[in-house]
Design goal:
The chain has four helices and five strands; from the N terminus they run βααααββββ. With 143 residues, it is α+β, with helices and mostly antiparallel strands. This is MaoC family dehydratase.
Length: 143
Amino acid sequence: MTVRTLFFEDLHVGMRETLMRTVMESTVSQFAEVSGDVNPIHLSDDYAATTRFGQRIAHGMFTASLISAVIGTRLPGPGAVYLSQTLRFLAPVRIGDVVVAVVEVAELVEKGSRVRLACQCLVDTKPVLEGEAWVMAPRRRAL
C-alpha cells in the first residue's frame, strides 16, 4: 500500500483515490475480534441462513474502515485528522466480495485546512455505502 501525504495546498476539488479489498472469512473473523462485534450474522452460517440475507455478511463498519484507510494513507494521507463522517449503508457486503472504496475531494475550506470528502464503497460497480467525511489536512511548513 502506498502511503503519502498530500498537504492542503496540494488538494483540489475532484481529486480522487481508491482502495480495493476482497472480504475473506478471515477478514470478518479478525474484524469481529478487534471490534468486539460478534453478532452471529457475521460469524455463524446457521444463524445467517435464517436472516433476510441468507448468508453471513461483513460488518458495515469494516466496509466503512476502508474509507478511513484511504483518508489515512492516500487522500490526504498521514497527518489528516478526522473531524466527522456520515454513512448510509445501501446493500450488504458478503464474504468473497471485492469492495472498492472511493474518496473524492468535494470542497476545500481555507480556514482550518478543512476538506469535505465524498465517500463511497462499491461492489461490482454498485454502491453499498455512501457518505461524507470532513477532515483537517496538514499544511506545508513555512520555509
